[in-house]
Amino acid sequence: MKLGVLVSDFRNMDDTLSRLKADKLGIILVSNGVYHAKVKEGGKQSPILEKSPHLYALAEDLQTRGFAETDIDSRVKAITYNDLVDLIFNEYEKVIWV
Amino acid sequence: MKLGVLVSDFRNMDDTLSRLKADKLGIILVSNGVYHAKVKEGGKQSPILEKSPHLYALAEDLQTRGFAETDIDSRVKAITYNDLVDLIFNEYEKVIWV
Amino acid sequence: MGKLTIGVFSSLVGSLSLDFAVKLSEAAIKKGHKVDFWVSGNATMLSKKGQRAFKDYSALEKKLQELFATGNFQATACEACAEARGYRKEDTMDGWKRHSMDWYLASCFSADKVLHIGGD
Amino acid sequence: MGKLTIGVFSSLVGSLSLDFAVKLSEAAIKKGHKVDFWVSGNATMLSKKGQRAFKDYSALEKKLQELFATGNFQATACEACAEARGYRKEDTMDGWKRHSMDWYLASCFSADKVLHIGGD
Amino acid sequence: MATKKFAFVVKSLPYKTEASRLALTHAIASQTVEIYLEDGDNVEPVLAFIGDGVLNCLRNQKAMNTYGVTSLEQHIKNSLLLDLKVLICKEDVEKFGISEDALIMDAEDIGGETRANIVAFSEIMKEMDSSNHLLFF
Amino acid sequence: MATKKFAFVVKSLPYKTEASRLALTHAIASQTVEIYLEDGDNVEPVLAFIGDGVLNCLRNQKAMNTYGVTSLEQHIKNSLLLDLKVLICKEDVEKFGISEDALIMDAEDIGGETRANIVAFSEIMKEMDSSNHLLFF
Known about the structure:
By secondary structure, chain A is of the alpha/beta class. Chain A has one domain: 3-Layer(aba) Sandwich (Hypothetical Protein Ychn, Chain: A), CATH 3.40.1260. Chain A has 3 helices and 5 strands. Chain A has helices at residues 14-17, 59-64, 81-91, and strands at 2-7, 24-29, 54-58, 76-79, 94-97. Chain A is globular, with a radius of gyration of 12 Å. Chain C has one domain: Hypothetical Protein Ychn, Chain: A. In chain C, strand 2 (34-39), helix 2 and strand 3 (73-78) form a beta-alpha-beta unit. Chain E is an alpha/beta fold. Chain E has a single domain, classed as DsrEFH-like (Hypothetical Protein Ychn, Chain: A, 3-Layer(aba) Sandwich). Chain E has helices at residues 19-28, 63-67, 72-81, 90-95, 121-129; strands spanning 3-10, 42-49, 85-89, 117-119, 133-136. A 5-stranded parallel sheet of chain E has the order 4-3-2-1-5. In chain E, strand 1, helix 1 and strand 2 (42-49) form a beta-alpha-beta unit. The mean pLDDT of chain E is 97. Chains in contact: A-D, A-E, A-F, B-C, B-E, B-F, C-D, C-E, C-F, D-E, D-F. Chain C binds chain D through residues 10, 12-14, 41-42, 45, 48-52, 54, 56-57, 80, 83-86, 88, 91, 120, and chain D through 10, 12-14, 41-42, 45, 48-52, 54, 56-57, 80, 83-86, 88, 91, 120.
C-alpha cells in the first residue's frame, strides 16, 4: 500500500505514525503539524521527520504560523494546495488525516 | 496560594502541572482526566498522581467511562458535583481547568 | 453564600464540557450560591434555541430553564461568536442574554470564584 | 480526472480545518476533479446560512458558492447533527443538501480518493 | 456489482469529543447505504480501535445514567448486533493492562451473535491494506 | 474602588482551536469593562504565554494572506498597543530554541509603546499568585 498521512497536530502523533506500515509512506505536514518541520524541542528535531524519506509541508500553513518555506528542515519539501491534490491523486493509493 | 486544578484530559497534562507552585495544590480529575485515576500504561500509574497528596476524581465522570468509584487508585478520593462545589468555595482560593 | 462565574469557551457540542458546567451550576445553586454562566467560541451553541433532543446528545434546555427559574442563575452568550455562527438574537434560547466579552470580565470581577473552561 | 470525497467531522469553527477542506476542494476542482463534501458533528455548522463575516473568522460562504457554480462540487450536511444543533432545513446555506450518514458512505463508495478529517 | 471495504479506525478517547461516537454511527450507516448504490453494490465496514481508542471498549459505561447520553458501549454493542467486524488492538489492550473480561466482547444481552476480536496491530494493518478507504477518527 | 487582576494564561497552540484567539480578545475586553462596573473599579489583565502557547508569539504570521483571518500576531500587537502586560515564558522560549528577534516583542509599527517581556516561569507564577482569578486557555 502507498499511504499518504496528513499530520495535523504537534503533539501525540508518534503513537499512530510509528506503527503504520506501508510500501511507500508519505508524511504531509498540515495545520499545526507544520511545527514538526521547524520547531526543535531541547535542540532536537521532531522524531516525525525520521519516519519517512517522503516529507512535505503545506506552504500556506507554514506561512500562517510565521515560518518561511526556505527556513524549514531541509528534508521537508514545501508544497501548495495544488501539489497536495496531485499527491493525493497520483502518489498515494490512500490518504489519512491524523 | 491554595490552587485547585481540574485536570480534564489524559494526555499533555504534565507540562503545566509539573510547574505550578502552590502552598496547597489540589488535583481534581474530571472528564477524560479521570483515566489518570485508573489506567496504568506499561504497568505504571499516571505521574499525575505524584503531583499532590490532594487527589480527587469526579464520580460521575468515572462511571461514564466504565470505572467504579471503588476501583481506582487508593490515593484518589471519588467526589460528587456537590463535593466539587465545596472544594471550589471552601478549600481553594483559585481554581483552574487544564 | 457566594457567586461562581463559569466561562465555557471553545468546547465542542458533543463533548461533555457543557454538561459538566451545567451540572456544576445546578449543584452550586442547590447549595445556595449564585452562578453566572458565560459561553464563548463554539460553546455559544449551547444558547441556540430549537436544539432537537437525540439520545446521542445531552439535551440541556430543560435543565437550563430550571436553573433560570431559581433566580440565582444568569447565562450570557458572546454576541460576536453567535453572529459569526449565524445565530441572530431571535435564535437565542429563552432566558439567555447576549453581550460582548466585557460582560464576562465584569462577572468575574464580582465573583468569589471563577471556573474558566478553556481549551478545546 | 477523478472524484475526491472529503469528510469533515467534529472540527471546530474557529479552527482552520474547514478552511483547509474548502481550499483543497477548490484546488482539486481547478485541476478538473470532482469533489463531494460531507460535514458531520460540529463541522455541520459550515452549512448554516447567515454567518456574519468577521476578521477573526474566515468567511467561507462566497468561496462555497463559487465551488457550487462549477457544477463539480456537491456538499451535504449530516441531517441529525444539524437538527441536534437547532438548524432546520430552512437554516441551510444555498447549495447544500442534508442527508443521513449513509450519503457519505455512498459518496466514498464511488470516490477515487477519500480524505476523512476526523478527530477534534 | 462490487463490495468496497472501509476501515473505521478509532484512536480518540470517548466523550471529550464526538469522534469515536461518529465513527460508530457512520460505520453503522453502512446498513442503509444500499439505497444510494446500484443493485449488488455494497459497503463492508471494519471497526478497529487502536491506541487510546481502545478505552472506548471498556464495559460498564454509565453515560446514560450520568449524563443522559448513549454510551459508546451501547454503540459498540449495536455494531456487534448488526454483525460489523470489530477489532481491538492487542498491544494497546496489554499496554493498558486491560483484561478481556473488562472489554465489550459481545452483544449477547441484546441478542447479538457476533463477537469483537482482540488482534495484533499487524492484523489491523492488514485490514487497512485490503480496505478501499481509510477513515481515522 | 478596587482593581482586580486576572491572569490570562495561554498554553494552547494557535489556529487549531480558537483558544488563544479568545484569550486575547477577552483580555482586550478589559478596556471596555468599566461600563459594567462601579466608578473607580477596574480590571487589570495580564497575558502570559507558556508551554506550546509561546508559539503564538512568533513573528511574521501571514494568516490574513493565507486564510483571510486576523493573525495571533495582530492580536498580540493590539494588546501591546493597549498597554496590556504581555509575558512570554523564558524556559519555553529556550526549550524551543527561539531567539528574541523571532518573537513579537513590540507593536512599534502600529504606534505601540509597551513591550512584551520574556520572563522566567517563576515570574509568571508570581503574577498568578497575585491575580484574583486565573483563566487558562
